[in-house]
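Me: I hope this is not a bother. Any chance you could explain this protein sequence and its structure tokens? It all follows right here:
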Amino acid sequence: MTIEKIKNNIDSKLGNNVKIVYNGSRNKREEYSGVISETYNYIFIVKVGSDEKKSFSYRDVLTNTVEIFFDKV
């Protein structure tokens, strides 16, 4: 998988519900549920809750630092 393929896949899911699992340093694991609201050249934005947004990079998806799970439609 390449960054370009990951970006295209996420672009095609714009507006869909997702679950994000962030595997940080020292076994720190964070989970977010939200909607993919924006995509840019190097990052994508997930709207979590009514006023909170989180940004993630396509590179983090490629290296499995960020795992993304799409809702089945």
Notes: The beta strands are 17-23, 29-39, 43-48, 52-57, 66-70. The longest strand covers residues 29-39. The domain at 3-70 is CATH 2.30.30.100 (SH3 type barrels.).
